[in-house]
Amino acid sequence: MKFSRRSLLSAGTVLTVTPVAALAGDQTHKLQKAIDDAKGVLRLPAGKYLVSGLRIASNLQLEGVGGSTVLVGAPGSTILTVEDVDRITIRGVTFEGGDNGVMLRNSGGAICDNEFRGQEKTALQALDAKGLEISSNHVHDIGNNGIQVW
Predict the structure, then answer these.
(1) Given this model, what pLDDT does residue 23 score?
(2) Which end of the chain is more exposed for a tag (fewer CB within 10 A), N or C?
């Protein structure tokens, strides 16, 4: 997928949730609302966000600040699930902790330039993908599986 600089600079939603350096509280509901309300692009500012069970069910470009936008998974959770989405893009996000980082089902798009750290089970799993690009992701200290494509 290619995007013009003009379209990236002029489109999208900037997250209104304030990141918390000390992870003072669960940000799941606020971040899920931002995902649900986003039209095309959702840009996450730098910071750490304690979340669990986030879901994306429509085409979306989710962008973080490489190395500085961190979604921290609550113990026993999957941080982000993407299901039945034709075009998802996730770029520049660090997924830290939780049982699983990102789970994709019956979805396509691009998962690029992300980092996965400390998941107990799987960093990134794709089931029944359609036109999915997975590239330039970094995987560290994963309990069972790094990247699985089934």
Answers:
(1) 53
(2) C
**Both tokens of residue 120?**
């107990």
By DSSP bridging, strand 115-117 and strand 94-97 are: parallel
**Block means of pLDDT (10 residues each) for the chain, length 150 residues?**
42 49 76 95 96 97 97 95 97 98 97 98 96 97 94
User: What does DSSP assign to residue 65?
Assistant: -
Alpha carbons 15 and 35: distance in angstroms, whole number: 9
Side chain identity, residue 54: L
pTM of the model: 0.85
What is the three-class DSSP state of 119? coil
Closest CA to 69 of 31, 19, 142, 16: 19
> Which tokens in the block code for residue 65?
């600040």
Closest CA to 11 of 54, 60, 47: 60
Question: SS3 of 19, please?
Answer: coil
Indicate the DSSP class of residue 26.
Answer: B
